[in-house]
Amino acid sequence: MQGEFRTPFRIGVDIGGTFTDLVVVDAEGGVHAFKSPSDPLDPASGVLNALDLGAKRLGRTSGELLSECSLFIHGSTIATNTLLEKKGAPVGLLTTEGFRDSLEIMRGIRQEVWDHRAASAPVLVPRYLRLPIRERLGHEGEELEPLDENAVRSAVKVLRDEGVQSIAIAFLHSYRNSAHEHRAREIVKETWPAAWVTCSADVAPIIGEYERTSTAVINAYIAPRVVPYLQALEKRLTNGGLKGDVLLVQSNGGAVSIPSVTERPVQLILSGPAAATGAIHHFSRDATSKKLLSIEVGGTSCDVAMLVDGQISMVDQLNIDGYHLAVPSVEIHTVGAGGGTIARADSEGMLIVGPDGAGAKPGPAAYGLGGQRPTVTDAQLVLGRLRPGPYAGGAISLDLQRARNAIDIRLAKPLGISVEKAAAGILRLVEQNIQHAVERVSVERGHDPRGFTLLAAGGAGPLHGASVGRLLGCGAVYVPRLAGVFCAFGMCNTDVRHDYQRAWLKPIDLPGIQDELTHESSALINSVAIAPLIKEGFSRDAIAFRFGLDLRYVGQQWTVRVDTDSFAPAGIRALFEQEHERLYGYTQPNGEIEIVNLRLTAFGRTQKIEVRATETSTSNPEPVELRSVWVDEIRGTMKVPVYDGRTLAPRQEIAGPAIIDEATTTILAGFGDHLKITDANNYLIMLQAPN
Questions:
Q1: pLDDT digits (tens, 9 = 90+) for 602-623
Q2: Helix axis angle, 43-57 relative to 209-239, nearest 10°?
Q3: pTM of the model
Q4: What are the structural domains of the chain?
């Protein structure tokens, strides 16, 4: 969406496995999108390279672009990658005497219930670095045994001599009383000022010793790697001309300043994918649907999220590569189903797709950067859905013959089938993987996908959207023009957000509970929630709050979260029973319900993007070419009209099958589908039911 633009700018930068996406939004809603190859070895250089590219295209230097920027938001995978690649710092753990092995014992719950042999993830802190400290608090936070300060000093000396760089402190019941953990931290800093220290009560003040300890350990593990990167990036951007703060996307979908997150970088574990929140909210208005299932398919993976009645589905527990984290997060289910996902034939003659990918380098075979293994992108190119030549503004070029050779040598010949049939098999398998990922966040949560609109985003998502929508039974697929820079755009439409919680553990029918909750929520607002947002530059009028409760029937292990504006017990019970019925299919009439946690979300509201209006047209659009395209298993290959997205205007309509080439993505409407351009200049595909 190039053209006239006015300052000041908002800038969103999303580092993906293949591309770094840059979106610049001007003061009148003009959106300018750019893609630059990611640099896995130096993510910060990837950010700066994307800025240089964007500035050049806009007729500016990167310094001028940064100096005219009013809001810079970044989504980074560095926290996730540090954990996945096991590149964190050596960590020591101080824990209550008698609970040294809780971190390794874990919960004993298998991800795959029938798999008795799967090994647990390696413990990040070996036993000899998990040191017990004499101290004890009761479950109400009362002191049963004082903290042995000399034991803390001795433990610090041992850990320092062992080469530890970061220390996690996780004492029993610290969620009710953090005094022992905080005093231990003071002693650590007195003894060893350079040490990184994490207290479990600060990063995860929850009931659940293992989850709290695991979260603290992961925070300690990634902090010495993540925080210096973020501080160095901010310094480079500031020296380059940026006048304001660099904001980061958190796992909860909101933004936060770097100083606010340096003590809790674990909150960034889903930074990047969670930025889809801002984009989903923005496009839900144009899609005219309160129920959206979003698939964001990039070069490496597919991220799935769900919006119901204006709210993105959230979770409070994450499992990342076998490690448990207790952080408020957008519920995102990720599978290895991107454009760079690799296909192979196994020794039994079975076609397998994913989960590993080719990444930015060497990338798919069609990139010509050294990749030899066939990928989803190669299959799309062979089947005519992608055109050979420059793509993503010239960032890469697709070579058809390289793609054919890779599929022929690695798949078609070993399986004894044609290149086209092998390529079609790749697409069928990857779309089944995406379907199952969507069902994970919808069907398994009590939602029927047939009542949803599928939002297809990412550089590769719109090529799969119509097929996956049919598999799910959706009636329509919505595709933003900015699908290829979906998360980067979402960053520019994101509020600053802070989440807080207090352990409670009281029945909702306790006399006076409504007054207690009202008092506690007010205290939480005034004591901890307002000050950080004021410090980040928000006026009181721009600050909003949302309350939630974690509830359960007495005796249950798992909680159910409900958001509420009222603390009346009858209303809380009704909300809980409605959600419990949806999740589990039953309620306990007159069952005793208890509150486990009180939650508060504080928002610093940013100005939302209003994209500038575009002239409408009712003329019949003209294709730029007819291309031989494999449409589906029933019709096979057909001559399909291909349209240039830049020539299409709101209210125009196209009958499928059809392909639309956009600047950052390619859209496929299937046989019998009906595509129309919405008033906001995006795409809505009405699906024909499968035959």
A1: 999 988 887 776 788 888 999 9
A2: 40
A3: 0.88
A4: 9-82+229-248+264-268 (3.30.420.40), 87-227 (3.40.50), 496-604 (3.30.1490)
